[in-house]
Write a structure and sequence with these properties.
This protein has 330 residues and is α/β, with parallel strands linked by helices. It is built from 13 helices and 10 strands. Bound molecules: Fe4 H S5 (Q46) and zinc ion (ZN).
Length: 330
């Protein structure tokens, strides 16, 4: 198959766009579409300081590379989860992020969960009896917001792609999670201590971000996080891939159709946010979920030596239980 824009051999065919492109023509197309999405949703301008949440995977590293190439002021933010897995997952991920930071000449902020919370994600999972992704998602959201505020970034960008967004939408519709539907959008504006959050890759498929990473020789971690295996969203992705195969463009139409009617799910009165009495980060009341998690982990660690005492500290005493969703894209 030939490239649509030049006589060279195509490396990718995108049936939803009826478009085949060669390696030289692919990046300009990808960057133009990134810019289009940024403008469509008024995500940020070249005067803004952007903090890109990078995980070492193809989506977030491609996002950082693309924003930098387009001339945006974008630094990286890596959260070391302390997950060992096969081949040292977190360590490898950090290395890939640092390599790109060096190549772009941009700053990479690194925060370690074990230092901040008192234990890495696998231990937090055991100490709290929460699903790893539930605790991990809470911690990541908290750190992203806190560090963007403290280091005075204007906006937080994550690498969620079309496949991620459509799988989450599918799940939210299946379970009629009205609150989550109201908040599912590529731009969440700043409010009451919460930084603006954007998803510039919301219209790119996983295949498209992978090809961008390959064409630009961005080294990324290919292994999934060990806790992602078996996540429900992965099975939704399979179902949606079949639908897309039968009718190319289905995912994009599903998502765009939702964006048009999303206002129907708006909560009449979103709960007001107040500063956490311990850390000052926004919460709906009293002590925030992160501070309660830290307290719980540290209490359990202190009690771990006596089994009777450990029994007494119920792992269910944390009342903040987020739904267990694999939160990719960073
Ligand atoms: S990193 Fe964290 Fe994901 Fe791993 S523990 Fe789950 S939420 S799967 S993006
Ligand atoms: Zn707090």
């Amino acid at each position: 198959m030939r490239c649509r824009k030049c006589p060279k051999k195509a490396i990718i065919y995108m049936p939803e766009h009826r478009l085949a492109l060669c390696s030289a023509c692919y990046s300009p197309w990808f960057l133009e579409h990134t810019e289009r999405t940024i403008r469509k949703f008024k995500m940020f301008t070249r005067r803004d300081r952007i903090l890109v949440a990078v995980s070492g995977g193809k989506d977030s590293l491609s996002l950082w590379h693309a924003l930098h190439t387009l001339g945006y002021e974008a630094d990286g933010f890596y959260i070391d989860l302390g997950i060992v897995g096969r081949d040292g997952y977190s360590e490898q991920s950090k290395q890939r992020c640092q390599e790109l930071a060096d190549r772009l000449g941009r700053r990479l902020h690194i925060v370690r969960v074990a230092e901040q919370v008192g234990a890495p994600i696998p231990e937090i999972k055991d100490l709290t009896a929460r699903e790893a992704c539930s605790a991990c998602g809470l911690i990541k959201r908290y750190f992203m917001n806190r560090y963007a505020l403290e280091a005075e970034y204007d906006v937080i960008a994550t690498g969620h792609n079309l496949d991620d967004e459509v799988a989450v939408l599918f799940s939210n519709v299946l379970h009629w999670n009205r609150g989550y539907l109201a908040r599912q959008y590529p731009v969440l504006d700043e409010r009451e201590g919460l930084k603006k959050k954007v998803k510039p890759f919301v219209y790119f498929t996983e295949k498209q971000t992978t090809v961008y990473a390959l064409v630009n020789r961005i080294a990324y971690v290919r292994d999934e996080c060990p806790y992602a295996l078996g996540a429900t969203t992965l099975s939704y992705k399979d179902i949606l891939a079949q639908l897309e195969h039968q009718a190319p463009g289905t995912k994009r139409r599903f998502l765009d159709g939702f964006y048009q009617i999303r206002a129907l799910f708006a909560e009449p009165e979103a709960p007001a946010l107040v500063p956490c009495s311990r850390c000052g980060q926004p919460t709906t009341a009293g002590v925030c979920a992160y501070c309660r998690l830290v307290e719980h982990v540290q209490r359990r660690r202190g009690l771990a030596s006596t089994s009777v005492a450990a029994e007494a500290a119920s792992p269910r005493s944390l009342d903040h239980q987020e739904p267990v969703l694999h939160d990719p894209g960073s």
